[in-house]
Amino acid sequence: MPDPVTGQIAKWLWENKHDIRKALTGLYGWFRGKGRRDKRGILVIGPGGSGKTTLGLLLSGEYDWLTDSPWTYTESRRLERYTLKDDKRVEVVVPPGQKHRREVYWADLQAEIAAGKFRGVILMTAYGHHTLGELVSYKDHPLYSKNKDAFLGAYLEEHRHEELRILRQIVPYLEVCQQRFWLLTLVAKQDLWWGDHPAVERHYRDGEYGEQIRKLAAAKDTRVFRHELVLASLVISNFGTDRQETLKKNTEGYDQRMQVESIRRLMETMAALKDWETGA
Amino acid sequence: MSTTEAEMARQQQAEDVARLLKEYADKLNVMASRLLGIPEREATAHGVRTALSTEVGTILDGYDAVAPTIESLTRYASQILEHFAPEKLAEIELTLRLRETERALDAVRLAADTLKNHYPAFLPDSRKKRLRARP
């Protein structure tokens, strides 16, 4: 007997597929710079394991979240660029996020942020749920001390701090940028933290993260700078290691329909940023 | 395992991985040098193209045999740096070894691409379309 929930999701997707495709196609055209004079690219920046590559693939149309299966995490070690063959001028640029790679790849990009080379910066976060890479067991982690739950709490807190460190690192470059640009904070992996979503929203809106953003916005003219916050889930997956260790299961009740809704909000926000760019 | 023992184990792990990376970076660099030296050797030794082509095939077979495992090792090294916070000197050594190994992996691919694009005659037929894609 078919699962009624899955059946409803499939029905909803089927009934809305034309609108979803149309919205995505419009966004892809925007990223590719069709019909636009502004050919500046979009930078996707954030810590390792936060989902930057997934977003890059999604934005460039290389990953279809309606039909493609989510894949396992593979650490990116190079600067990734997503473009179309017919227009290589507009790029989605995704540098690797590991701390030891940032000094190699981020210095030039930060200078490019300051010089206004990007029309927008997407800062990927995940409320600390940064995938623990391949081959590593959480039991070998320095934060582990015979208790998985205690480890998870400490790990998530440490990686939320890491998100803040990255924000603080790029804010000076955003502040000095004289060109018109937008900043989008994307809090991914909503399926993992959905049970705690009021705290997550507080963290990004009112906590230290939100405070940094408010300071940045206060230093900028609203005609040349805009910030948006989107909470979303690009894929639905448990939080674990490549050794089949599950650290946290995705929130009970967070289904594909909620994921689709979150992607819809992301698309609407991107569309609003597009309108803001063009002054519509 | 006590905290000190766990720290020592992680430290040893970082040193072991750095040593392995050095060993395989050296091997990869030799592979790249041999590949890039093939056209020059052909110019000074006429009539050995078939032998050189076989040598290219052997080098690339060797590369294919070890590259996935070396890539896995580089990701492990990266995770140690990202999560295990080794002692400063070990961290610097591991960072350097990791970068050298990643560059060496790229060097072999670049050498193979150079042969394919500029000296295709040196590639065995089975290799002309079958070069490992970048991860």
Mean pLDDT of chain A: 83
Helix content of chain A: 40-55%
* Structural class by sheet pairing and helices of chain B: mainly alpha
% residues in beta strands of chain A: 15-25%
Report the sheet-strand fraction of chain B.
under 5%
Question: How many helical stretches of chain A?
Answer: 8
Strand order of the largest sheet of chain A: 2-3-1-4-5-6
Main β-sheet description of chain A: 6 strands, mixed
Radius of gyration of chain A: 19 Å
Biggest sheet descriptor of chain B = none
Shape of chain B: elongated
Question: Which terms summarize this structure?
Answer:
heterodimer, A: 280 residues, alpha/beta, six-stranded mixed β-sheet, two-stranded antiparallel ribbon, 8 helices, 8 strands, globular, B: mainly alpha, 3 helices
Explain what this protein looks like in three dimensions.
The complex is a heterodimer of chains A (280) and B (135). In chain A, strands 2-3-1-4-5-6 form a six-stranded mixed β-sheet, with helices on both faces. In chain A, strands 7-8 form a two-stranded antiparallel ribbon. In chain A, strand 4 (118-125), helix 4 and strand 5 form a beta-alpha-beta unit. Chain A is built from eight helices and eight strands. Chain A is α/β, with parallel strands linked by helices. In chain A, helix 3 runs parallel beside helix 4 (148-176) and helix 4 (148-176) runs parallel beside helix 7 (208-218). Chain B has 135 residues and is mainly alpha-helical. Chain B is built from three helices and no strands. Chain B has helices spanning 3-44, 49-84, 88-118. The longest helix of chain B is centred in the first third of the chain and has 42 residues, at 3-44. The model of chain B has no long low-confidence stretch (mean pLDDT 86). Classes of the chains: A alpha/beta (280), B mainly alpha (135). Chain A binds chain B through residues 48, 74-75, 77, 98-101, 104, 132-136, 140-142, 145, and chain B through 3, 6-7, 10, 13, 72, 74-76, 78-85, 95, 98-99, 102, 135.
